[in-house]
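Entry type: protein chain
Record version: 2
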Amino acid sequence: MFELLQLPFMQNALFAGVLAAVACGVIGSLVVVNRSVFMAGGIAHAAYGGVGIAFFFALPALPCIVAFSLFIALVMAALTVKKRGRMDTIIGVLWAVGMAIGIILVDLTPGYNVDLMSFLFGSILAVPKSDVHLMSILVVFILAVVTYFYKELLSTSYDREFSQVRGIKVVPLHFLVSALIALAVVMTIRVVGLILIMALFTIAPYLVEKYVSSLAKMMLFSSLLNILFVLTGLWLSYKFDLTSGATIILTAACFFILFKCGVILFTKLRSS
């Protein structure tokens, strides 16, 4: 295994996995406490439109996905900021439109590029160093923004109306969180793909939420759990020659099932 770590592609995979795990741990915590899982899923799937644009116009994939995901996220934020009760309908429409744009543009692109599958199901072993550099910049940006606006994000996450009364600018923060979700989505596409991305956003924060005393600790431990999922899944995929993204998600799912079963068993033993 240590010999494998000497290979450049494996080093890129490890860096990309850890960076995506941290981004999903931090932003996934905000998604879970804000009950915005469906919105995150909508942005994730609509991001396929950026893939189609990149291939149709022969442009670098990751910058195109960043731009399109941010655009979709801000449109979702604008349409849902005053209509919280109809979020699911609006997000569902934009989700479908984004994917449809991507599919049509891919159909119109001459030839067939097998690399498209990596955006749907992940291809962490094929992440180039240029993507790792861009992911590093995005993680630093995400962490800096969340740290700077932490108090405001904490307040609006748990009590939006009270935060508004206190004078906190709730609407700009709504747009900000949507944009951060889009950036985290882009970072995770290459690791587990658009189809599986929501598991890495939600499993770790859900497991951690009940056992921490602050949002900051939830972000920290969610990130550490995600790193564990990514590294274990990556090792298993190499050991048994499996698809890396799917193996990472199944690793997280197995941990989730074992943890929940353990909690149920412990509760029953304690009450008996």
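Comment: The chain has one domain: 4-271.
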